[in-house]
Amino acid sequence: MAEARKWQGKTAGGKFGQRFLLTFLKHFKVTALYPVLWVIIPFCLLFARKPNRALYCYFHDIRGYGKWQALRATARNAHTFGKVVIDKFAIWAGRADQFHIKLENPGLTQQLLRQEKGVLIAGSHIGNFELLGSSFQHHEKTINVIIYGGESEQLSQQRNTVFGGNQVNLIPVADDMSHLFTIKNALDNGEVVAILCDRLFGSPKKKTVDFLGHPADFPIGPFRLAAQMEIPVLSVFVMKEKRLHYTCRATLLTVEENTTLNQKCDSLVEQYVHSIEETLHQYPHQWFNLFDFWNLEKQSQ
Questions:
Q1: For the whole prediction, is pTM greater than 0.85?
Q2: Which of 67, 69, 195, 224 has its CA at 20 to 30 Å from residue 263's CA atom?
Q3: DSSP E strand boundaries for 17-118
Q4: Residue 251 in 3-state DSSP?
Q5: Are the C-beta atoms of residues 148 and 201 closer than 8 Å to each other?
Q6: What's the rounded Cα separation, in Å, for the pair 156 and 152?
Q7: Rounded to whole angstroms, how far apart are CA atoms 38 and 44?
Q8: In this structure, what are the phi and psi dihedrals at residue 201, rounded to the nearest 5 degrees?
Q9: Could you tell me the mean pLDDT of each successive run of 10 residues in the chain, 301 residues long?
Protein backbone atom coordinates (compact mmCIF):
# COMPACT_ATOMS: atom_id res chain seq x y z
CA MET A 1 0.00 0.00 0.00
CA ALA A 2 1.46 3.36 -0.97
CA GLU A 3 1.82 5.57 2.07
CA ALA A 4 0.94 8.71 0.13
CA ARG A 5 -2.42 7.11 -0.61
CA LYS A 6 -2.92 6.02 2.96
CA TRP A 7 -1.96 9.07 4.94
CA GLN A 8 -1.06 12.65 4.16
CA GLY A 9 0.28 13.60 7.60
CA LYS A 10 -1.89 16.69 8.03
CA THR A 11 -4.95 17.53 10.08
CA ALA A 12 -7.74 18.67 7.77
CA GLY A 13 -9.49 22.04 7.94
CA GLY A 14 -6.89 24.44 6.58
CA LYS A 15 -5.18 27.20 8.56
CA PHE A 16 -8.32 29.31 8.90
CA GLY A 17 -10.50 26.41 10.03
CA GLN A 18 -7.91 25.21 12.52
CA ARG A 19 -7.44 28.72 13.92
CA PHE A 20 -11.21 29.10 14.31
CA LEU A 21 -11.57 25.79 16.14
CA LEU A 22 -8.67 26.49 18.50
CA THR A 23 -10.02 29.96 19.33
CA PHE A 24 -13.64 28.83 19.72
CA LEU A 25 -12.80 25.84 21.90
CA LYS A 26 -10.64 27.90 24.23
CA HIS A 27 -13.78 29.75 25.32
CA PHE A 28 -16.68 27.35 24.77
CA LYS A 29 -17.50 23.81 25.79
CA VAL A 30 -16.66 21.22 23.16
CA THR A 31 -20.24 19.90 22.98
CA ALA A 32 -21.33 23.27 21.54
CA LEU A 33 -19.84 22.17 18.21
CA TYR A 34 -21.27 18.63 18.14
CA PRO A 35 -24.60 19.65 16.50
CA VAL A 36 -22.67 21.14 13.54
CA LEU A 37 -21.69 17.58 12.59
CA TRP A 38 -25.28 16.84 11.52
CA VAL A 39 -24.71 19.36 8.71
CA ILE A 40 -21.09 18.50 7.89
CA ILE A 41 -21.20 14.70 7.96
CA PRO A 42 -23.79 14.27 5.13
CA PHE A 43 -21.51 16.30 2.81
CA CYS A 44 -18.51 14.18 3.87
CA LEU A 45 -20.46 11.00 3.18
CA LEU A 46 -21.36 12.28 -0.29
CA PHE A 47 -18.01 13.67 -1.40
CA ALA A 48 -15.25 11.90 0.58
CA ARG A 49 -15.59 8.75 -1.46
CA LYS A 50 -12.31 6.97 -0.75
CA PRO A 51 -12.50 7.15 3.08
CA ASN A 52 -16.17 6.18 3.05
CA ARG A 53 -15.52 3.30 0.67
CA ALA A 54 -12.79 2.08 3.02
CA LEU A 55 -15.14 2.34 6.00
CA TYR A 56 -17.92 0.53 4.14
CA CYS A 57 -15.52 -2.29 3.25
CA TYR A 58 -14.42 -2.49 6.90
CA PHE A 59 -18.01 -3.05 8.03
CA HIS A 60 -19.22 -5.10 5.05
CA ASP A 61 -16.20 -7.20 4.04
CA ILE A 62 -14.28 -7.42 7.31
CA ARG A 63 -17.00 -7.39 9.96
CA GLY A 64 -19.59 -9.13 7.79
CA TYR A 65 -22.38 -6.54 8.05
CA GLY A 66 -25.17 -6.60 5.51
CA LYS A 67 -25.33 -3.83 2.88
CA TRP A 68 -27.71 -1.47 4.70
CA GLN A 69 -26.25 -2.24 8.11
CA ALA A 70 -22.79 -1.41 6.74
CA LEU A 71 -24.07 1.88 5.27
CA ARG A 72 -25.60 2.88 8.62
CA ALA A 73 -22.44 1.85 10.45
CA THR A 74 -20.31 3.92 8.04
CA ALA A 75 -22.41 7.01 8.80
CA ARG A 76 -22.23 6.37 12.54
CA ASN A 77 -18.46 5.85 12.37
CA ALA A 78 -18.04 9.14 10.46
CA HIS A 79 -20.13 10.98 13.05
CA THR A 80 -18.10 9.52 15.92
CA PHE A 81 -14.88 10.43 14.12
CA GLY A 82 -16.13 14.01 13.77
CA LYS A 83 -16.70 14.23 17.53
CA VAL A 84 -13.24 12.81 18.23
CA VAL A 85 -11.64 15.37 15.90
CA ILE A 86 -13.46 18.20 17.69
CA ASP A 87 -12.35 16.72 21.03
CA LYS A 88 -8.75 16.72 19.76
CA PHE A 89 -8.93 20.41 18.93
CA ALA A 90 -10.32 21.06 22.40
CA ILE A 91 -7.30 19.24 23.86
CA TRP A 92 -4.93 21.26 21.64
CA ALA A 93 -6.73 24.41 22.80
CA GLY A 94 -5.80 23.51 26.38
CA ARG A 95 -9.25 22.30 27.47
CA ALA A 96 -8.57 18.64 28.24
CA ASP A 97 -10.04 19.29 31.69
CA GLN A 98 -13.53 18.95 30.17
CA PHE A 99 -13.12 15.23 29.60
CA HIS A 100 -13.77 12.50 32.15
CA ILE A 101 -11.41 9.54 31.69
CA LYS A 102 -11.91 6.18 33.35
CA LEU A 103 -8.74 4.11 33.57
CA GLU A 104 -9.67 0.41 33.46
CA ASN A 105 -6.50 -0.89 35.12
CA PRO A 106 -4.98 1.94 37.18
CA GLY A 107 -2.84 -0.37 39.33
CA LEU A 108 -0.99 -1.75 36.29
CA THR A 109 -0.16 1.62 34.76
CA GLN A 110 0.83 3.19 38.08
CA GLN A 111 3.20 0.31 38.77
CA LEU A 112 4.90 0.61 35.38
CA LEU A 113 5.11 4.39 35.51
CA ARG A 114 6.84 4.26 38.89
CA GLN A 115 9.51 1.71 37.99
CA GLU A 116 12.99 2.73 36.82
CA LYS A 117 12.73 1.07 33.41
CA GLY A 118 11.35 2.85 30.39
CA VAL A 119 7.95 1.88 29.00
CA LEU A 120 6.75 1.56 25.40
CA ILE A 121 3.09 2.42 24.82
CA ALA A 122 1.67 1.02 21.59
CA GLY A 123 -1.42 2.88 20.43
CA SER A 124 -3.58 2.74 17.33
CA HIS A 125 -5.81 4.92 15.16
CA ILE A 126 -8.89 3.99 17.15
CA GLY A 127 -10.45 6.16 19.83
CA ASN A 128 -8.60 9.35 20.83
CA PHE A 129 -4.87 8.85 21.42
CA GLU A 130 -4.44 12.60 22.11
CA LEU A 131 -5.89 12.04 25.60
CA LEU A 132 -3.04 9.72 26.54
CA GLY A 133 -1.27 12.25 28.76
CA SER A 134 -4.49 13.14 30.57
CA SER A 135 -5.22 9.44 31.09
CA PHE A 136 -2.07 9.02 33.17
CA GLN A 137 -2.39 12.09 35.37
CA HIS A 138 -0.01 12.51 38.31
CA HIS A 139 2.56 10.32 36.56
CA GLU A 140 6.22 10.78 37.39
CA LYS A 141 7.66 9.95 33.97
CA THR A 142 7.89 12.11 30.88
CA ILE A 143 5.74 10.72 28.07
CA ASN A 144 7.39 11.08 24.66
CA VAL A 145 4.81 10.87 21.89
CA ILE A 146 6.04 10.11 18.38
CA ILE A 147 4.26 12.33 15.85
CA TYR A 148 4.42 12.56 12.07
CA GLY A 149 5.27 15.87 10.42
CA GLY A 150 3.27 17.94 8.00
CA GLU A 151 1.09 19.92 10.41
CA SER A 152 0.78 23.69 10.14
CA GLU A 153 3.27 25.71 12.18
CA GLN A 154 0.47 27.17 14.29
CA LEU A 155 -0.99 23.77 15.18
CA SER A 156 2.44 22.31 15.91
CA GLN A 157 3.33 25.17 18.26
CA GLN A 158 -0.04 24.95 20.00
CA ARG A 159 0.36 21.22 20.61
CA ASN A 160 3.88 21.67 21.97
CA THR A 161 2.72 24.39 24.37
CA VAL A 162 -0.28 22.44 25.68
CA PHE A 163 1.37 19.04 26.01
CA GLY A 164 4.59 20.45 27.44
CA GLY A 165 2.68 21.54 30.53
CA ASN A 166 1.53 17.98 31.15
CA GLN A 167 4.92 16.23 31.03
CA VAL A 168 4.28 15.20 27.42
CA ASN A 169 7.11 15.69 24.93
CA LEU A 170 6.39 15.49 21.19
CA ILE A 171 9.04 13.83 19.01
CA PRO A 172 8.52 14.40 15.27
CA VAL A 173 9.64 11.72 12.84
CA ALA A 174 12.70 13.04 10.96
CA ASP A 175 13.71 12.17 7.40
CA ASP A 176 17.26 11.44 8.57
CA MET A 177 15.89 8.94 11.14
CA SER A 178 17.50 10.92 14.00
CA HIS A 179 14.29 10.44 16.00
CA LEU A 180 15.36 6.83 16.56
CA PHE A 181 18.24 8.01 18.73
CA THR A 182 15.88 10.29 20.66
CA ILE A 183 13.53 7.36 21.28
CA LYS A 184 16.32 5.10 22.50
CA ASN A 185 17.71 7.83 24.77
CA ALA A 186 14.27 8.41 26.28
CA LEU A 187 13.85 4.71 27.02
CA ASP A 188 17.40 4.50 28.41
CA ASN A 189 16.48 7.35 30.77
CA GLY A 190 13.49 5.43 32.08
CA GLU A 191 10.89 7.54 30.26
CA VAL A 192 7.75 6.55 28.38
CA VAL A 193 7.62 6.42 24.58
CA ALA A 194 4.16 6.32 22.99
CA ILE A 195 3.77 5.47 19.32
CA LEU A 196 0.91 4.51 17.01
CA CYS A 197 1.83 1.03 15.80
CA ASP A 198 -0.85 0.21 13.24
CA ARG A 199 0.59 1.95 10.15
CA LEU A 200 3.80 1.21 8.28
CA PHE A 201 4.65 4.81 7.23
CA GLY A 202 6.95 3.46 4.52
CA SER A 203 8.85 1.07 6.79
CA PRO A 204 9.88 -2.17 5.05
CA LYS A 205 10.06 -3.97 8.41
CA LYS A 206 6.64 -5.49 8.88
CA LYS A 207 4.80 -8.59 9.97
CA THR A 208 1.67 -9.94 8.32
CA VAL A 209 -0.84 -11.11 10.89
CA ASP A 210 -4.43 -12.30 10.92
CA PHE A 211 -6.46 -9.25 11.91
CA LEU A 212 -10.25 -9.59 12.20
CA GLY A 213 -10.06 -12.69 10.02
CA HIS A 214 -7.98 -11.19 7.21
CA PRO A 215 -4.22 -10.74 6.70
CA ALA A 216 -2.88 -7.24 7.43
CA ASP A 217 0.60 -5.70 7.73
CA PHE A 218 1.89 -4.15 10.96
CA PRO A 219 5.26 -2.54 11.71
CA ILE A 220 7.65 -4.52 13.90
CA GLY A 221 10.26 -1.82 14.60
CA PRO A 222 8.86 -0.54 17.93
CA PHE A 223 8.30 -4.07 19.23
CA ARG A 224 11.77 -5.20 18.20
CA LEU A 225 13.31 -2.25 20.05
CA ALA A 226 11.30 -3.09 23.17
CA ALA A 227 12.34 -6.74 22.99
CA GLN A 228 16.00 -5.81 22.54
CA MET A 229 15.95 -3.39 25.48
CA GLU A 230 13.79 -5.73 27.59
CA ILE A 231 11.33 -3.00 28.49
CA PRO A 232 7.60 -3.52 29.17
CA VAL A 233 5.08 -2.84 26.41
CA LEU A 234 1.55 -1.55 27.03
CA SER A 235 -1.14 -1.46 24.38
CA VAL A 236 -3.27 1.57 25.22
CA PHE A 237 -6.51 2.78 23.65
CA VAL A 238 -8.53 5.78 24.85
CA MET A 239 -12.08 5.10 23.65
CA LYS A 240 -14.92 7.60 23.46
CA GLU A 241 -18.07 6.89 25.45
CA LYS A 242 -21.12 9.17 25.68
CA ARG A 243 -20.55 12.91 25.41
CA LEU A 244 -17.35 13.87 27.28
CA HIS A 245 -16.57 10.49 28.81
CA TYR A 246 -13.68 8.26 27.72
CA THR A 247 -12.38 4.87 28.82
CA CYS A 248 -8.64 4.15 28.79
CA ARG A 249 -7.87 0.48 28.17
CA ALA A 250 -4.33 -0.65 28.99
CA THR A 251 -3.00 -4.18 28.48
CA LEU A 252 0.49 -5.41 29.36
CA LEU A 253 2.04 -7.44 26.52
CA THR A 254 4.22 -10.26 27.80
CA VAL A 255 6.96 -12.44 26.29
CA GLU A 256 8.49 -15.76 27.29
CA GLU A 257 12.03 -15.54 28.60
CA ASN A 258 13.61 -18.53 26.85
CA THR A 259 12.76 -17.45 23.31
CA THR A 260 14.70 -15.77 20.50
CA LEU A 261 14.50 -12.05 19.73
CA ASN A 262 12.42 -12.73 16.62
CA GLN A 263 9.99 -14.90 18.59
CA LYS A 264 9.58 -12.22 21.25
CA CYS A 265 9.01 -9.60 18.57
CA ASP A 266 6.41 -11.74 16.77
CA SER A 267 4.63 -12.46 20.05
CA LEU A 268 4.42 -8.75 20.93
CA VAL A 269 2.97 -7.87 17.50
CA GLU A 270 0.39 -10.65 17.72
CA GLN A 271 -0.68 -9.66 21.23
CA TYR A 272 -0.93 -6.03 20.19
CA VAL A 273 -3.14 -6.92 17.22
CA HIS A 274 -5.29 -9.11 19.45
CA SER A 275 -5.77 -6.19 21.86
CA ILE A 276 -7.01 -4.03 18.96
CA GLU A 277 -9.45 -6.77 17.97
CA GLU A 278 -10.82 -7.02 21.51
CA THR A 279 -11.25 -3.24 21.70
CA LEU A 280 -12.96 -3.02 18.30
CA HIS A 281 -15.40 -5.78 19.24
CA GLN A 282 -16.61 -3.45 21.98
CA TYR A 283 -16.19 -0.21 19.97
CA PRO A 284 -16.68 -1.19 16.30
CA HIS A 285 -17.55 2.40 15.28
CA GLN A 286 -14.23 3.88 16.37
CA TRP A 287 -12.06 2.50 13.57
CA PHE A 288 -10.29 5.55 12.11
CA ASN A 289 -7.87 4.06 9.57
CA LEU A 290 -9.71 5.58 6.63
CA PHE A 291 -7.96 3.72 3.81
CA ASP A 292 -7.83 0.22 2.34
CA PHE A 293 -6.11 -1.26 5.39
CA TRP A 294 -6.41 -4.90 4.28
CA ASN A 295 -5.49 -4.33 0.62
CA LEU A 296 -8.94 -5.57 -0.38
CA GLU A 297 -8.93 -3.64 -3.66
CA LYS A 298 -5.65 -5.24 -4.72
CA GLN A 299 -6.86 -8.71 -3.76
CA SER A 300 -10.04 -8.31 -5.82
CA GLN A 301 -8.12 -7.48 -9.01
A1: yes
A2: 195
A3: 100-103
A4: strand
A5: yes
A6: 6
A7: 11
A8: 50, 40
A9: 44 68 91 94 90 95 97 96 94 90 85 88 94 74 79 62 71 76 91 91 82 95 93 96 94 91 95 97 96 79 48
